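The instructor's notes for this session suggest beginning with a concrete chain rather than abstract definitions. Hand out the sequence below and ask the class to guess, before any prediction is shown, which regions might be ordered.
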Amino acid sequence: FDRIFTRIGASDDLASGRSTFMVEMTETANILHNASERSLVLMDEVGRGTSTFDGLSLAWACAEQLAREVRAFTLFATHYFELTALPETLGNVANVHLDAVEHGDGIVFMHSVKEGPANQSYGLQVAALAGVPPAVIERAREHLRHLEAQNLHESASEPAAQQFSLFAEEPREASAPALDALRETNPDDLTPRQALDTLYRLRDLLEKPTLG
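After discussion, reveal the predicted structure:
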């Protein structure tokens, strides 16, 4: 490798008046501007210092830039599961995850790399390992069940809504007088003068308001 770039950790710079997110973006910008296809790039949780959608969008765009333009050998760690779709459009991107085994309410990290994306997050288990009070963990678990159920309900109802909008018939309007007159007209039977008169008559019919 010609150089090694890292964007790891989260700390603000109070002396310079820079937030954690500003520090993160400054380091990310440096990588995107200066890394080459012969560089090693280590990126950890890009986008976590701002709102979910902003962070996800930035992480996605940065990962695409590294894969498409910079083409550096990159390890891009993230909890944005949406990013696991990148290999579908980028042939030089692959998903891997670190294996873990659940044991009761706990977790054991195996520290082995497996192919494919992780099938779940272990945030609550890690919080418990860190010593967060059990009452808080249980309350978080209740919120998690509620959010998962809400997301499942929205996902289940969305196709039905799409199907309704796709196949629902548009309300049919009553035949306008101009359309009726046009259907009754045979252009082959009209002289040039009659055709012109018919055109003016159709225009007048279109301009007249119709009763609903």
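Then share the key points. DSSP finds six helices and five strands in the chain. The chain has four domains: 1-94, 98-112+119-131, 133-170, 177-207.
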